[in-house]
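lol so apparently i was supposed to do this last week
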Amino acid sequence: MTIPKEIIVIIQKLEKAGFPAYIVGGCVRDILRNEKPKDWDITTLAKPEEIQKIFPDSFYKNKFGTVTVKTRSSDPTLKEVEITTFRRDEKYSDKRHPDKISFAKTIEEDLSRRDFTINAMAVQLTNSNKHQITVIDPFNGQKDLKNKIIRTVGNPEDRFSEDALRLLRAVRFSITLGDDWQIEKNTLLAIKKLSYLLKEISKDRIRDEFVKIIESPRAAEGVIALHKTELLQYIIPELEKGVGMSQNRHHIYTIFQHSVLSLKYAAKYNYNLNVRLAALLHDIAKPQTKRGEGASATFYNHDIVGAKITYQILKRLHFPKKTIDKVTLLVRYHMFYYDPEKVTESSVRRLLQKVGKENIDELIQVRICDRKGSGVPKAYPFRLRHFKYVLEKVKSHPISVSMLKVNGDDVMKTLNIESGPRVGLILNALLAEVIEDPEKNNRDYLIKRIKQLAELSDSELKSRQKIIEEKKMEVDEELKKKVGIRDLKR
Ligand code: ATP
Ligand code: MG
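anyway here it is w/ adenosine-5'-triphosphate bound
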């Protein structure tokens, strides 16, 4: 691996000004594994003000002593390079943020405050044109890298107590670095012993590490590792409820096994984060909705309740609103029918109207994961192909008011009424008819219908747009009580 010239230039400038400078952290680990680093970090004796003097168009982003330097590189991993002053061990009295930053004098001291041996190495550029490298590796990171071992720098219990996010980072690295990585024995024992400390950690930091696990090809192994290390109960305790819980005659796996296996296929097919999360969470309400035992157990409404629980989980982990909405919707509708006997053009149009055209591909992907995760051999059986065929056929059909051949003005003019809620009621009633039969989407017919529908009362009109109402995911009060959904709120 050659060091990019942008990095060499930055180091040369710092050294010329009299400050030792090194490449450090994750990128050193990646260079030594012959992987392309995702970003480049430099550490130096220079203080933030001194770094800024050397690089006039740099900016000082946060109070942790990191200065960002922009380069002209077209490679996105090199566009911004972070330069951080050597730091020393910091106290984390709240287990979240170091109380104050203090600077270190040497690279060795800086390396000693880093989390794992494989992340605690630095590279020094040696000969005069800086093309030779020396690895500074006081904690035998190279050996652990070779043996694929995650081990804390120093005493694991101390290091996890300083910053409990490291508990989760240990699992994250053991998953994202590839196959066969292991967490060293004492490090692993300390994780289990101190797992409860994760409670103290901000949800945003937890979410970022969790997402890295879910986005990796080994996402499913990651969730199993989180369960085994006892960390999962502090991230998504709802998943733990399905551990060891059997389903019914249609399922060979327990709820937890099936959820993890569904995620495994989502990762295998390289589906996006939304689909992966939905695959993991689609049966999240099965433990609460289970009625009866053994072969004939049922899980009525687990999709509806599951959507609610999914919403709560993702909200609690501070996922962006877009992700929350999308994944909740995927869980809500993952049970859509696709048996050829039940699939008609109008049923598919109704489904499209409920879930939105923009979500249908991901919804199908979730269903594929669900199927494969149940142990069936074919991801794409005839039934699903037939469903897709009908879907393609109806995709251009009108499924929203804006696709009708008449609009609000037409309703107002035809009936000589002012704008108001009644206009919307009539348009939606027309849409309900057009969804049943797209042939009806022609102006003459619709204008005629507007006059006829005007005879109906508001409530009669409303009952005609039942389909649209269904879009609002309401769990009725009785069901809420039955599954104790209030108790799930945090
Ligand atoms: P990735 O390639 O996934 O970004 P990374 O190793 O670069 O992995 P970062 O979270 O970007 O991980 O952190 C950069 C470096 O900062 C780490 O390699 C490690 O040396 C140090 N570091 C990050 N977080 C911590 C922490 N919580 N405690 C101690 N050191 C940390
Ligand atoms: Mg990084």
